[in-house]
Amino acid sequence: MGMKAGVLGILAILVFTVFWGVGLAFGEEAKTPPSLSLKEAIELGLQKSRTIRLAELSLKVQELQYREGKANLLLNPSVVSELQLENTWQSAQRNFALQRMQLALSIEEAYYNVLRAERALSLARENLARLEKQLEDTRIRFSLGVVAKIDVLRNELEVDRARLEVERAERNLALSRMNLGSILGQGLEANFTLSTDLSFEPEELDRDACIQYALLHRPEIKEKEETLALRQKELAVVTSYTPALEREKARVNLEVAKEELENTRESIILEVEQKFSDLLAALKNVPIARKNLEVARETLAVQQARFDAGVITLLDLLEAQNDLYKAESDYLQALFDYHIARAKFYNALGADLEERGKLTPRKETGKENG
């Protein structure tokens, strides 16, 4: 009986241990931040953000005013008043569409900012590890009398600076995550695993086609076109029995609407041209930053070999290590700048994520990651 009880006790302990381990595994899995692609982030923000909720409430108020105005027209019919009411309601809807566009751009910028901050922290940690390893070697060399005390102090100084850089990168990442969570309406403590990477995939862009697309899809153009149509209808309902002052006012309003439409067209064309130029500059800077990174890596390898051979000083080697870290950071910044310029360019076109691929097919080139 004693042996049987002992065996049963051991089995009970094993079963408890297995289920406890499984429970821990599920607990850890539950704590894993949810994955979020750029598309999913934009969709989430357009549904849950406080900005969009306020915009929806404002639109609802304007809709109620529109319905109230329609009811009043039943008692006091007026063709002109009805046209103006319809135009006001359409303008409110266009403004809401503009707010959605600007929110989508803000979400995309915040998303890429988190990606940049994550990669910047990784680079800072890699740089710190590189310098700490060098410090170990320097201290060994000092104990053997190969290098001077000043070399140890210099290396320690660089390590201290690298630690401060890691701390700064950690704070930046925390703030960028808080900003993204706030924009998405998920709170400052929200955390996500971002699945869209900070890659570089050049695109073929047709400037003229992009301008035409913007002129067809920007809400501001549609709003001005609707206003022009309203002014034309207002002038059309003016009769010879209408006071001369009212007829003249209708004609002036029509001319104003025409000028505003042309001015809006020119402004949008100029904006697209500017964003197109910014995107091209950012696109061309990425290969340059990548080449600079390759040079810095090769230079460090050469300087390390020369230092090991006793040809150069530790100061020269530390300078090469710092140059590599700067080149890595510059390349990351170039990738970030490219994605932000790209987002602003498509925003200037009035194109969402779904429309981008249709508008500008990708080149058959290799994909680069930051």
Automatic annotation (TrEMBL):
InterPro entries for the chain: OMP_efflux, TolC-like
GO cellular component: cell outer membrane; efflux pump complex
GO molecular function, a single term: efflux transmembrane transporter activity
Superkingdom of origin organism: Bacteria
Subcellular location: Cell outer membrane
Stretches that traverse the bilayer: none
Pfam families, sorted: OEP
Main location: membrane
Coiled coil: 114-179
Keywords associated with the record: Cell outer membrane, Coiled coil, Membrane, Transmembrane, Transmembrane beta strand, Transport
Family in the record: Belongs to the outer membrane factor (OMF) (TC 1.B.17) family.
UniProt protein name: TolC family protein
Source organism of the structure: Candidatus Caldatribacterium saccharofermentans
Highest classification ranks of the organism: Bacteria, Pseudomonadati, Atribacterota, Atribacteria, Atribacterales
